[in-house]
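Try it yourself: sequence plus adenosine monophosphate, in.
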Amino acid sequence: MSRVFLPGSTIGVLGSGQLGRMFAMAARRLGYRVHVYSPDDDTPTGQVADVEVQAEYDDLEAIKAFAGQVDVVSFEFENIPTETVNFVDRFVPVRPGGQVLHTTQQRLREKTFLQSSGFPVTPYRTIRSTADLDDVSAADMPGILKSTAWGYDGKGQVKVGSLSEMHSAWQALDCGEAVLERFVDFEKELSVVAVRGQDGSIVTYDPIENVHRNHILDLSISPATLPRRVADDAVDIARGILTDLDVVGVMCIEFFLSKDGNLLVNELAPRPHNSGHLTIDAHTTCQFEQQVRAVCGLPLGSVNQLRPAAMANLLGDLWQNGEPNWSAALATADVKLHLYGKKAARVGRKMGHLTALAESTLEAALQAKKARKALVEQNSPESKGCLESSPLTISS
Ligand code: AMP
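Structure, out:
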């Protein structure tokens, strides 16, 4: 049902990480009130929201009370239980709808949707038992075994180099269901951040080029250096997916561009995405403001890019030898610092990002990396050892 929520209304957010934080900042800039709901306290989103509710996602009384205080609800990441979202939807509209979350929060459902709708996906087979391992052949190798239950940043994944490693990989993953994906020897990784309004209108940012390290996004560059045909195809695929899924809001489509020039969809994120963070500083309307506009039924904003840009993630690893040297990074011309207000720095944890703007993407990438390097070149000695010791959960 089409309904518009004007500035002054209250938006509820399920989930309280950095995506919710940047969404709440955009919403408040537009004059909305923001209430956030999650099991945690003093969260990245809670710190900038009007109201922070701390309760479990299965606490129906607390969810009902939360829904009673807000006009419309969105979620900041896809690990929110679908049951919670559907329950909220009985009281106030949730955008994007529960069906989008249902499809995209489980790898096999997502791949089945993509394949049956004719979108190009990485070749895969489903593994539910050791018997399924017998069907795996040398042609499936090398591969990546991924749990179908939602993971992120490479969690719940094991690389399988050869057939002989299949059984140990299945045991190591220790889950009821997985997909075995062929390892793609890609030329590049790309993403398209797209937004669909209540009226079905769609706007898309130009494809963004992404570099991952240990399965975690490290660097994003926009605009991507691509043949026009590839960029146009990626945008067409993105538009098709948002339309078929009836998305209202932002969705990011992650792609591999194979060495022979073919696009394969790697995965979908039904929300603003890490690779789109550079739109905050580099575009007329950022992805978070687009999410606010779409969720509230307002016209979508311009996706015009103001300058070439690069975004470098700041992981907890940077705290290894003490507090990073913020002054050094901020002294770098045309670099913007974004920190998420997280108290504990852990290896692999996303603590913030830097965006560099320049005359070319190459220059922007160099500036972003230079600024990030400057953070650790002169750590302050009195703050040594503040990194929480935690084993890397990433399998590679
Ligand atoms: P995911 O969480 O599935 O998006 O994986 C995170 C990252 O791991 C991707 O962005 C790629 O860099 C890498 N990766 C995942 N699946 C594959 C694959 N099938 N082939 C090659 N690299 C992959």
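One thing you can check immediately is this: Residues 381-386, 388-396 have pLDDT under 50 and may be disordered.
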